[in-house]
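subagent[fold] <- orchestrator: predict structure for attached chain, return tokens only, no commentary.
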Amino acid sequence: MRRLRNGSNIAVTIVVYVLGLLVLFPFFWMARSSFMSNIEINAYPPPILPRVWHLENYPYALTVFPFARYFLNTLTITVPSICGALMTATFAAYAFARLDFPLKRLWFTLVIGSMLMPGAVTIIPIFLGWTFLGLSNSYVPLIVPAFLGGGAFNIFLIRQFLMTIPRDLDEAATIDGAGSVRILFTILVPLITPVLLAVGMFTFILYWNDLLGPLIYISDQNRQTISQALAAFRSGYGTDWKSMMAAASMSILPCVALYLIGQRYFVEGIVLSGLKS
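subagent[fold] -> orchestrator:
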């Protein structure tokens, strides 16, 4: 039995390593291309590593790709969206997990069911609404939706985490005269920090890499985000692949750094959210 268990563990480990390599391979290919010349990138068969490491690709990419401006534009959208998603999703999740109100199960079912609706269905009516308000060429349509519920998946994740916390804490605080808002912020929020960090990371990656939203609402080149600018990193004479790969490598560094810093909380927030339904 022990040999069978050890064999199973080895097989699972091998599968995990293989899947991990498959996931990381596109990032490796992007990073190695950022140190090549365009001729070497288009060579066949493609070399695994650069024959000559062109470190100057990164300084050159910064001269043709105003990274700082696009970086600040993306942060202008991402940071308020994270705050809005965390705040409104926490309020909604607390209501579904702790409060009693009419048709609560029905409302929660509708919230979860909204994840099944394709996003393409609502693109045109929402765009027409923002255009009618005169806000189509601004960051408002990209930020405000985060303050309107925070996303069904985020609500579900935080709600499931709250369900793992005993109600005895709420009852003890209620006896001491604490209201719902005080219970949420002084007792529950410190206990659900891991899932809040996980939701914050999800939201950051979602808005940082969002391409469709900026393409729909942002037409001013000075307001473009990183993903939008990378998609337009072309000219009528072809694509400067070495500069594009260098700019793309720099654009994912905040996501990688954020995950490396908060990976423990990220995993804990995901795992503990499914302990109790």
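orchestrator: received. Logging for downstream: Residues 38 and 242 are 6 Å apart (CA to CA). The chain has a mean pLDDT of 84.
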